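Following the same procedure, backbone shapes were mapped to integers, yielding the entry below.
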Amino acid sequence: MGRVHSRAYRRLRDHFPETVARPELVIVADASPDRRAEAADVHGYRETTDQWQRVAEHPDVDVVSIAVPNFLHREIAIAAARAGKHLWLEKPCGRVPAETAEIAEEVERAGIHTAVGFNYRYTPAVERARELLAAGAVGTPTHYRGHFLADYASDPRGGRSWRFQEAYGGLGVLGDVMSHAADMACHLLGPIDELSAERAVFVPERPRVSLEASHFDVSEDAALAPVENEDYAASLVRFAGGARGTLEASRVTVGPHVRMAFELHGTEGALAWDFERMNELWRYDRRDPDPGYRRVLSGPGTAEHGRFQPSAGIGLGFDDLKVIEVHRFLEGIVDDEPRAAGLPEAAAVMAVIGAMQRAARTGSRVTVEPLTTAPSGGATP
């Protein structure tokens, strides 16, 4: 993800030439000498180091990107915030909701700007869906189905990287991809106030690998070690506005690769979107004389699509969403008016995730409570 952030900074003025923000890549920290060399040679960082503290303390740095494993989020974010640096932080902002709360408190105390990597909300087709909702195109929303079904851990030979260990990853799929599904739901329909939930581990053991290894690394003969957090989670939710919904997330689903998707139904219509076909929005309007789902292609008139491609049918990709994200973040800093989803939105999402932990642990329906620094149930299912 550090590469993605670096590319986004470098591409910013290609797509938003009028912006007054002029990102300069000052210093990068990485434990790997090879990645440090790549950062300098490919991305153009002026300095490299193996000590993240040098980044947080550097006098020429205004913004710190934090694209590291979950167990480092809290320490680095708090140090950078206390140094007065603005933060671009990848979700889930800590291992557990209590760490997100600590970061959010420090950010508010420091008075800095933040962006958190809820990039799917910036998809032009999703922005169009939000506009249609605001215009009453579906009538009163009644129910919502959101899911993030991934296959990155579907092979049981995949290594037990930091993501599967509570001390390093914290939560499993709840923090990793359910956070995206919950953010999208709240982005479209507003706060969730009550829910029930369950979670499960479907691959209980994985091959031991080093902490530096990826979960994509496959081992045929390494000794097995236990998986310490959930592979799967699902929740029945009630939105504050009255709609009901389901949210589901998995990292071991065979078939879908990155099926981050939603279906939203109302009294007069419906909307549907799937990241695997991210430039398409499906719309149903019961008032149409010939009703049925219509495919609407994202095009130059759809949010920031025209900043990247000249016509409908020429699609955007994941990296483009990160460029949109960093543009909104940096413009917010320049104007002192937040435009990107930041720590307040992350705290709201992790309050929902914390409620899912409590509901799964107790087997009962629970109220979503404001995020606090108190533990909300641990990562282990």
Q: What stands out?
A: DSSP finds ten helices and 16 strands in the chain. The two ends are 27 Å apart (CA to CA). The CA atoms of residues 205 and 226 lie 4 Å apart.
